[in-house]
Specification:
101 residues, alpha+beta, three-stranded antiparallel β-sheet, 2 helices, 30% strand, elongated
Length: 101
């Protein structure tokens, strides 16, 4: 059995040599790059304009024992690419957060 497997392996055809690598000509490279630039410009022109607006949230909490809390955050755009995040929080009252009144 081992002899037949060795003979079959020896009789197997050799693997085909890999095909030579193909390269694009300089003109083809330029054409591909120009087409990519046109597609990118068309996509940018079709994209909706970004709105640079202030976004955020505020909240309040009221609980037992006189607990009160107010908090909020806002994202404020600065210029074309920048922004600032502003937050605040204030709480008072309640058994765990201060003296009872």
């Amino acid at each position: 059995m081992w002899i037949s497997m060795i003979l079959m392996a020896a009789a197997a055809p050799a693997a085909a040599a890999p095909a030579p690598a193909q390269r694009l000509s300089d003109a083809e490279v330029a054409r591909v790059l120009d087409e990519a630039a046109r597609k990118r410009e068309a996509a940018e022109a079709a994209a909706p304009e970004r709105k640079r607006i202030v976004e955020g949230e505020v909240g309040v909490e009221v609980g037992s024992g006189g607990y009160r809390s107010v908090y909020g955050s806002a994202f404020v755009p600065i210029g074309e690419e920048g922004g600032a995040l502003v937050t605040f929080s204030n709480q008072s009252g309640g058994d765990r957060y201060g003296p009872r009144r």
